[in-house]
């Protein structure tokens, strides 16, 4: 049985036994918060448990490194949708210890792409089109600095309401301990 077959078989039982009932929630976050965090597998259950969050409490956006690299990209758009359309009124960026983005090297990743079949011609075409893979695939040196960078990108966004606090934390990937690295209360202005 492959992964998809396994997922569908489990899902059939999940629905038939009404397991979904314990996860029933509305689409609006009850804690009125949107969280940007890393897609790291260790955080799937650890992050909500360490923060005492249950289904429906917050909107969670996951990507590599909890980084907003493009102020007008899909992650920032999701933050704005959460604020303007779904009732969030606080933003929290949560990075984590031992993040893979801290050790990401563009050269290595580009090498892996070529090894897996992406042609040199494609690489060259992208570079000639102005896409700088070395910059785009770059990680960060410090998780704390990565979190602070993303907090700063959000706080300075021209479409963010001035009264929305933006916070930053780092979670320990093993213990779940949270370290506040950017506290947003008092930094927002009233409308």
From TrEMBL:
Belongs to the beta-class carbonic anhydrase family. GO terms for molecular function: carbonate dehydratase activity; zinc ion binding. Keywords: Metal-binding, Zinc. It catalyses: hydrogencarbonate + H(+) = CO2 + H2O. Its cofactor is Zn(2+). Zn(2+) binds at residues 38, 40, 96, 99. SMART domains: Pro_CA (SM00947). Its EC number is 4.2.1.1. Binds 1 zinc ion per subunit. It comes from Paenibacillus xylanivorans. This is carbonic anhydrase. InterPro entries: Carbonic_anhydrase, Carbonic_anhydrase_sf. It comes from the Bacteria.
């Amino acid at each position: 049985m492959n992964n998809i077959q396994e997922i569908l078989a489990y899902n059939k039982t999940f629905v038939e036994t009404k397991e979904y009932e314990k996860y029933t929630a509305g689409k609006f976050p009850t804690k009125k918060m949107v969280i940007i965090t890393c897609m790291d597998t260790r955080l799937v259950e650890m992050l909500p448990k360490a923060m005492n969050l249950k289904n429906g409490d917050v909107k969670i956006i996951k990507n590599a490194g909890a980084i907003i690299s493009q102020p007008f990209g899909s992650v920032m758009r999701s933050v704005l949708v959460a604020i303007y359309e779904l009732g969030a009124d606080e933003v929290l960026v949560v990075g984590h210890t031992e993040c893979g983005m801290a050790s990401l090297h563009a050269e290595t990743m580009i090498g892996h792409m070529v090894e897996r079949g992406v042609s040199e011609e494609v690489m060259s075409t992208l570079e000639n089109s102005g896409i700088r893979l070395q910059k785009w695939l770059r990680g960060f040196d410090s998780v704390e600095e990565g979190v602070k960078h993303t907090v700063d990108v959000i706080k300075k966004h021209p479409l963010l309401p001035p009264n929305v606090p933006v916070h930053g934390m780092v979670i320990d990937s093993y213990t779940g301990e949270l370290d506040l690295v950017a506290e947003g209360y008092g930094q927002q202005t009233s409308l």
